[in-house]
Amino acid sequence: IKDVLMDNDLIKDLVDVAKDSALLNGVLMRTKETPNSSEVVTYAPFTLFPSPVPKDTFHQALAVQTHYNRLVDKISQDSSFLEEALATTIKVDDFTGRLFNIYRHVLQEGKIQSIVLGLNRSDYMLDQNGDGSASLKQIEINTIAASFGGLASHTPNVHRHILKVAGRLEDSKRILDNNPSAGLAKGLAKAWELYGSERAVVLYLVEELQRNIFDHRYVENELWKRNIPVIRRQFEDVAKTGFLDQDKRLFVDGREVAIVYFRNGYMPQNYTEQNWEARLMMERSMAVKCPDISTHLAGTKKVQQELARPGVLERFFPGEPDVVDQIRATFAGLYTLDMGPEGDKTVAMALAKPDQFVLKPQREGGGNNLYGAEICQVLEGVKQSTERMAYILMDKVQPRPVHNYLLRLGTPLKLSTCLSELGVFGAYVRHGQDMVLNECAGHLLRTKSDEHSDGGVAAGVAVLDNPLLV
Ligand code: ADP
Ligand code: MG
Ligand code: MG
């Protein structure tokens, strides 16, 4: 394989084949120049070759997903846990604070919708152990707008084809099937059926710039196949035309909304005052929210850190020590930066060995975390003040690098040293007290050059990949 990677003529031919295959298989993205038009589109960024992932850790990640679904769902129902876990964060982080205000508002008014739909993605990296083995470590869980399930359903055929053309037929046969589109759509469809109105629509709440629309469309089309109507609207549309009737049913553009599927609304830049109002209205409504505000908060980095405290998982899974063990086995070291001796210890530890940690604010979408020297700069500035409570500290996971070519429009071709991140999609539906659906909905492998500390496909760093189990 090393020789192949160094054979420039062969690689150039394969890259041409690869790009055409991506287009033929619908691994697509709109361009930066025309993000709201499909007149001219390009391939979504992807690796030339699939990346090795150890079989046991891959299956471990799939197997723990239904437990993570239950965990997120339990957290979302535990108001005293959420209050305590986020108490310090919301004092200093305005964005989380505003989300929390909506949460309190809805709690006080009383939730009127007993259907809960969760579509999440739990992300992992494989930490190298001294003995050459690797341990599955969770990076984070995304409970809002977890993306690339649509495109990931179509990348396996691309890599199968590339491997065949490269003369690796046996490897080609080992590329796994993957269909998160179907799994995510199944969750949406179940919640829509339970809502129980044929005319009511699934509203995709989308961004202004829609480069990644094809990823959405795959799931959307699964719904249309089931005769479930879908509309795509922005916060502004909801603000302008949305209202609640006397039963708090949500109407947007004259259509009753069964489900609001948030593919936007996870970062501060998504919100004007008007958009905050619209979010509140949707949360107060009878529509099923994916995610609802409490599930959104359950996905914060601060909650992740609090879960790693001794005894916390036991609280959520009394009498289920196996579940606790399976989840906890995936935790990396997570440390509080709250005021007090524990937080002081975290500061000292981070400043002493900044390269061993990641400093994380309560943000999503990639590009927000701090590494190495930046950790020292930021911590020196905030270590004496409550500002530090906006962050958590995490052990840096150190995966084993592999070589690959990252194919991205406008980026010159070069051999990169790469790190991969494995995502696992979860889908669940709860109706009152009954979990009526709880499934692992597929996987996503993303790979980036090791020149980048942070990740994210939308952030322009990571690209789509497939695991080749080893
Ligand atoms: P976001 O919600 O912005 O995606 P993440 O926690 O996933 O935040 O961090 C973004 C990226 O930073 C990840 O995709 C990964 O590449 C890198 N990263 C985050 N946490 C760690 C960690 N503990 N060890 C190594 N890399 C990390
Ligand atoms: Mg995230
Ligand atoms: Mg992430």
Task: Give a verbal description of the structure.
With 470 residues, the chain is α+β, with helices and mostly antiparallel strands. The protein has one domain. Helices cover 40% and strands 25% of the residues. It starts with a helix and ends with a strand. The model has no long low-confidence stretch (mean pLDDT 97).
Brief descriptors of the model:
470 residues, alpha+beta, seven-stranded antiparallel beta sheet, six-stranded mixed beta sheet, 19 helices, 21 strands, 40% helix, globular, binds adenosine-5'-diphosphate, binds magnesium ion
Major β-sheet annotation = 7 strands, antiparallel
3D shape: globular
What percentage of residues falls in helices of 4 or more residues? 40-55%
DSSP strand (E) fraction?
25-35%
Number of distinct beta strands: 21
Bound molecules: adenosine-5'-diphosphate, magnesium ion
Rg estimate, integer Å: 22 Å
Q: Given the helix and strand composition, which structural class is it?
A: alpha+beta
Whole-number tally of structural domains = 1
Q: Uncertain runs with pLDDT below 50, 5 residues or more? A: none
